[in-house]
């Protein structure tokens, strides 16, 4: 799903709740990816046209977090 593997990689610091990180850490084991690759895959998918055509969950549950 990554568009251009030769594209320059940049470091990005992200602070998230421990529980969310724990949930994210379980996913790459199933997909045979690193945690970084899994997060990148999720972000690419979410921003893709395919994901935009699917119904979205209400975003209010995330309001005020960050």
Labels describing this entry:
globular, single chain, mainly alpha, about 70 residues
Helix/strand layout:
Elements: H1 18-31, H2 35-47, H3 49-52
Helix pairs in contact: 1-2
Can you put this structure into words, describing what you see?
- The protein has 66 residues and is mostly helical.
- It has a domain at 13-48.
- It has three helices and no strands.
- The chain has helices at residues 18-31, 35-47, 49-52.
- Helix 1 (18-31) packs across helix 2 (35-47).
What percent of residues are in strands? under 5%
Instruction: Give the end-to-end Cα distance, rounded to a whole number of Å.
Output: 27 Å
Name the poorly predicted regions. none
Query: The biggest beta sheet, please?
Result: none
Specify the overall morphology: globular
Radius of gyration (CA) equals 14 Å
**What multimeric state do the chains show?**
single chain
* Overall number of strands: 0
Question: Helical stretch count?
Answer: 3
Q: What's the mean pLDDT score?
A: 80
Helix content: 40-55%
* Class based on secondary structure composition and strand pairing: mainly alpha
Order of helices and strands: HHH
Give a summary of the structure in a few sentences:
The chain is mostly helical and 66 residues long. It contains 3 helices and no strands.
